[in-house]
Amino acid sequence: MSEKTVAIAFGGGGARGISHIWVMEALDELGVKPVALSGTSIGALASICYASGMSGKDLHDYMLALFSNTGEVLSRFWKHRPRSLSQMFTLQNPMASWAQLDPHWIVETFLPHEIKADFSGLEIPVSLSATDYFSGEEVIFDKGAVGPALAASIAIPALFRPIEIDRRLLIDGGCVNPMPVDHVRKKADIVIAIDVVGLPQRPADNRIGSFEMGFGATQVLMQTIQREKMRHDKPDLLVRPRVDEFRPLDFLKTADILAASKRTKDEVKTSLGRLLDR
Question: Which of 166, 206, 246, 247 is the residue whose CA sits 20 to 30 A from 257?
Answer without folding.
Answer: 206
